[in-house]
Amino acid sequence: MNMTFISILAVFMIAVGVAFIYFIVRENEKPLPQGGVQWAAVVLSGLLVVMSGFLLALTLVPGGGLPAVGPRAEIDKPATNFTFRLVENDRERDLASYKGKVILLNLWATWCAPCLEELPALDRLQKNYADDGFVVLTLSDEPRDVILDYKDLLPEATVTGYIDKMRMPPAFRDALDAGRPSTYIIDRDGYVRRYILGASSYAIFEQLIHPYLGDAVAVR
Question: What does the alpha-carbon distance between residue 191 and residue 57 come to, in Å, rounded to a whole number?
Answer without folding.
Answer: 28
